[in-house]
Amino acid sequence: MFFGRIVYREQEISIALFTRPSDKLDCLVLSRPLFYVPDSGAEDVFEQLLFFNNGATEGVHFAVDEPLNTINLVCLRTMDGMSFQEFQYCVENIIAVARNSANRLIPEFGLMRYP
Length: 115
Description:
Strand order of the largest sheet: 1-2-3-5-4
Number of domains: 1
Largest sheet: 5 strands, antiparallel
CATH architecture: 2-Layer Sandwich
Shape: globular
Number of helices: 2
CATH class: Alpha Beta
Distance between the termini: 26 Å
Helix content: 25-40%
Radius of gyration: 15 Å
CATH topology: Yope Regulator, Chain: A
Number of strands: 5
């Protein structure tokens, strides 16, 4: 397993590479923490995130990182046949969804940004 970070367009994105035990495929995970899970009203936030995850965010999805208590954007892809253009698309998509979701979720739910 490999862990690292990249900074692209002033956004820090974590990278993990691992081999999936079930089928021995190498996989790439891109992750960008966005917000802290709110102390109250989390159910309403999670309901909105489930709605977004139902196809509204293309190749990325929202996930909760319990140890950090954060809401993250995550992209998981197998490395088999992945081109640089697909990698770049995944990174660009994370950044676009992060910006768009912040514009919607901060005013609506008062979420606090992750640094």
